[in-house]
Amino acid sequence: MLIKIETLVKSQKHLVLATCGQGLPHASLMAYCVAEATPRAGGEFWLATLRGTRKFANIMQNQRASLLLDDRSVAGEPSLALTVEAECHPFGSTVAGSTVDEGAARAALGARHPGLAGFLALPEVAMLRFVPLRYQLLSGLTETFLWSPAESA
After folding, report:
1. Quick one: 52 exposed, middle or buried, by C-beta within 10 A (0-12, 13-18, 19+)?
2. How far, in Å, CA of 67 to CA of 86, rounded?
3. Which of 28, 31, 48, 107 is the most exposed place for a label (fewest CB within 10 A)?
């Protein structure tokens, strides 16, 4: 199942970021890239947003969020859906022995999404570093697989 997770993460370019602030959920379609596509390595997700957005305010209040990816664009209907429970950490901080430079993450996101070059150059853009806590893979309508990097270490 970890191979399915890795393949799904590598094959998609967008995800839904679900945050919560002031007791209300909020979902945003986001471009992303990953530090490592292999979930076994921790697979941080890097995203960018404007500082003045609701999602940014929500993350500043509550660093925990969910990321949703699926293979709908590949198969017509989703046969795989991945929910990643994650926590946002500042760039430059050490998480699980790894320190990431914000500039490197910005460059990696720009390389994966060249159309974002102008957006990523704006001074009001904040880079977001989501570190996965748990993965839940749904295959079809009934098969569920849960995996936590912390529990596997």
Report:
1. exposed
2. 7
3. 107
Question: What DSSP line would sit under 105-147, residue for residue?
Answer: HHHHHHHH-GGGHHHHTSTTEEEEEEEEEEEEEEETTTEEEEE
Convert the pLDDT of each residue in 84-121 to its tens digit: 999 999 888 888 777 888 999 999 999 999 999 999 99
Q: Output DSSP code: residue 71.
A: -
- Residues 82, 135 contacting (CB under 8 angstroms): yes
Structure-block tokens of residue 42: 């921790």
Report pLDDT digits (tens) over 61-72.
Answer: 999 999 999 987
Model pTM score: 0.89
User: How far is 131 from 89, CA to CA, in rounded Å?
Assistant: 7
Closest by Cα among 100, 94, 17, 108 to 63: 17
